[in-house]
Amino acid sequence: MTTRTFDKAPSTAPMMLKAVLPALPVIGGLPGVKHAAKDVPDLVLERSGVTVDPAHLAKYNRVCGFSDSDTLPATYPHMSAFPLHMALMTDTAFPFAPMGLVHLRNSITQHRPIGVGETFDVSVRAADLRPHPKGRLVDLLTTVTVGGEVVWEETTTLLARGKGGADERTPAPLGGVEAPSGAAQWKLGGDLGRRYGAVSGDRNPIHLHPLTAKAFGFPRNIAHGMWTKAHVLAALQNRLPKAFTIDVEFKKPILLPGTVTFGSRTNGGVTTVGVTSGERVHLVGRITPGA
């Protein structure tokens, strides 16, 4: 296993440009990263000594709906992981072009809350390239440690669409789970993708403007999946245990601007969540208390 260490977060802007330009239909002939690997790279990306910028955290809390706290929202460490995700996906050893990938599932385990003032280390690697009926799946595994203690873990599951897919080897984690009904209405502005992108560094054009989204086949720009997951946790912020796992599957994209409905149901300590609009399911998830 090869380890690549970063002293600071790699800039996402040039990596996004590197990923996007070859995928644009109007300029698709431009040279870009060639992804021909048949398996995941034998590579770990690490960044040590990460500290939280209070101003950045405050902006994240505002755009996602969290109240200020002396501990980080469970989705916030993803902010430190995302630049490493981009560095990994734009590496020539990664098997798929980043712009062809769909963020299908995301699982976060918070073993304990991370204090705002704590310093932590982040590591990212790819794993488990496997079949899916619509193509192939690959996981990005992220681990956050404090003084050698694993405090946070994330599995980002990406779908590469393609022919010749097959059934998954194991059942989908949320297979058969239905989104609960609810009464909470979220009215989402057309600028939500730009506001979250400015905080997260995820400026994928499908999230930013209707015109840039149309270039990739969407009728309008769409909300980030990780914003939706964060806003779900923000809606339940005062009801969450200190240690828990939240698994979500992203279904249909949320077109911006738009209005969606949030619902939750708790049974036996396990909370099922859903984000819908009419009959369309955008997210279904499950929150399971930890030890």
Computed CA radius of gyration, to the nearest angstrom:
18 Å
Estimate the mean pLDDT confidence: 93
Order of helices and strands: EHEHHEEEEEHHHEEEE
This entry's quaternary arrangement is single chain
Structural class: alpha+beta
**Form type:** globular
C-alpha termini separation: 31 Å
State the low-pLDDT regions, or none. 26-30
- Number of helices in the DSSP assignment: 6
Main sheet overview:
11 strands, mixed
Kindly report the spatial arrangement of strands forming the biggest sheet: 1-2-4-5-6-3-8-11-10-9-7
How big a fraction of the residues is strand? 25-35%
How many beta strands in the DSSP annotation? 11
How helix-rich are the residues, as a percent range? Answer: 10-25%
Written description of the protein model:
- The chain contains six helices and eleven strands.
- β9 (258-267) and β10 (270-277) form a beta hairpin.
- By secondary structure, the protein is of the alpha+beta class.
- Mean pLDDT is 93; it is low at 26-30.
- It has an eleven-stranded mixed sheet, with helices on one face.
- The relative contact order is 0.15.
